[in-house]
Amino acid sequence: MRSYQQYCSVARGLDAVGDRWTLLVIRELLLRGACRFTDLKAGLPGIAANLLSSRLKDLEESGIVRRQYAGPPVASNLYDLTEAGVELEPVLRAIGIWGLRYMADQRPDDAFHAEWLAYAASWSTDAEPVGPPATIQLDADGQRAVVELGSGQVLCRAGSIERADLTLSGPARTILGLLVGRIDARAARKLGLACAGDLQLLRRLRPATMAG
């Protein structure tokens, strides 16, 4: 593990998590929870197995990741975040919110997983905390995620449900732009969005900002 060799908490923090891929490893463990090496690698398209092994070793040494053996039927080592690792979630969220300004273009070679879209959607809050429970099905570039509104919370996950109050289908960048308030529904339709159901539900999603 390389060091900036500076007596500064920012530098010390970057000593631990500043290498390429490291924060994305933490992102995947936040989203997946305890998982096998192969599952973790599947969530990080483009990373070499030896580099992932190196990053996990460094994170273990820093007390950010722990490795435990799970017996049958798993019969494999599982990687999970320690308490110190979980404490990095607000850091990842802040970087993600700040990085939304760079998401207008979706490059042809960009990998995309529904979990990442669901994570971005979860940064929103419910503008009608006493509103009735509602669900939004997202179908972005063939990958599916679900947004659940209720009790003042916005919960998101990859996957699908049988009946949704609103279904949004289209390019990932269009759905992301709509969910985080970068474009409105009219502009989203021009960019390939298809809607079915109660579009007014989008009014309940209050996108996160850098201020909170």
Q: How would you describe this protein?
A:
With 212 residues, the chain is an alpha+beta fold. The chain has 2 domains: 9-87, Winged helix-like DNA-binding domain superfamily/Winged helix DNA-binding domain (Arc Repressor Mutant, subunit A); 114-206, SCP2 sterol-binding domain (Nonspecific Lipid-transfer Protein, Chain A), CATH 3.30.1050.10. The protein has helices at 9-17, 22-32, 37-42, 49-61, 83-86, 89-99, 114-121, 172-179, 185-190; strands at residues 65-70, 76-81, 125-126, 134-140, 143-150, 153-158, 166-170, 194-197, 205-206. The model has no long low-confidence stretch (mean pLDDT 94).
Task: Identify the notable features of this structure and list them briefly.
single chain; 212 residues; alpha+beta; Arc Repressor Mutant, subunit A; Nonspecific Lipid-transfer Protein, Chain A; globular
